[in-house]
From TrEMBL:
<keyword id="KW-0805">Transcription regulation</keyword>
<dbReference type="Pfam" id="PF00486">
    <property type="entry name" value="Trans_reg_C"/>
</dbReference>
<feature type="domain" description="OmpR/PhoB-type">
    <location>
        <begin position="92"/>
        <end position="190"/>
    </location>
</feature>
<dbReference type="InterPro" id="IPR011006">
    <property type="entry name" value="CheY-like_superfamily"/>
</dbReference>
<keyword id="KW-0597">Phosphoprotein</keyword>
<dbReference type="InterPro" id="IPR016032">
    <property type="entry name" value="Sig_transdc_resp-reg_C-effctor"/>
</dbReference>
<dbReference type="InterPro" id="IPR036388">
    <property type="entry name" value="WH-like_DNA-bd_sf"/>
</dbReference>
<feature type="modified residue" description="4-aspartylphosphate">
    <location>
        <position position="15"/>
    </location>
</feature>
<dbReference type="InterPro" id="IPR001789">
    <property type="entry name" value="Sig_transdc_resp-reg_receiver"/>
</dbReference>
<dbReference type="InterPro" id="IPR001867">
    <property type="entry name" value="OmpR/PhoB-type_DNA-bd"/>
</dbReference>
<keyword id="KW-0902">Two-component regulatory system</keyword>
<protein>
    <submittedName>
        <fullName>OmpR family two-component system bacitracin resistance response regulator BceR</fullName>
    </submittedName>
</protein>
<feature type="domain" description="Response regulatory">
    <location>
        <begin position="1"/>
        <end position="79"/>
    </location>
</feature>
<dbReference type="InterPro" id="IPR039420">
    <property type="entry name" value="WalR-like"/>
</dbReference>
<keyword id="KW-0238">DNA-binding</keyword>
<keyword id="KW-0963">Cytoplasm</keyword>
<dbReference type="Pfam" id="PF00072">
    <property type="entry name" value="Response_reg"/>
</dbReference>
Amino acid sequence: METYASTAPDLVLIDVQLPMFDGFHWCRMIRAHSSVPILFLSSRDHPTDHVMAMQLGADDFIQKPFHLDVLIAKIQATLRRTYNYNQADSGNIIRTWQGATVDVEQNLVTYNEQSVELTKNEMFILKQLLERKNKIVSRDDLIKELWDDKRFISDNTLTVNVNRLRKQLMKLDLGQYIETKVGQGYIAVEGEHG
């Protein structure tokens, strides 16, 4: 962690299989201190590895072997999403939803004097849903907005990210306001939960 702290990277590429501690351990350690984007690269192909990485806060999981062009595209998309998407929305960085304050720039949701910090992906999903409050946002739209090229993303990746977002919001008693519309997508409810 000393090396990570001293270099303060803009993005972390990490493998699952590492000496001493695995990539999951380091992802957990980094997430305890930072919301920097984390991309896993691994030859391990079991779905549980992919799910575990996403549940721990990784932004993407790239299977080895991969084409270098795919890796570069994913890195560029992640960096663009992480560091650029707020610029176009600089006039509307703070939002309110269900009585909570959503600070898009700081990745913070505050409610009843308690706050949770979201990962870049979690905040991006919440932001997309809040831009269309009380309207269904399709899974395809979210995948396309998040990962640019949905051919390289499993449907489960989005589910894991939304579940992680809900889990964070549950700490503020807000998770139930992100509803799943089976076969359609997700909706951020504003007003009475129904």
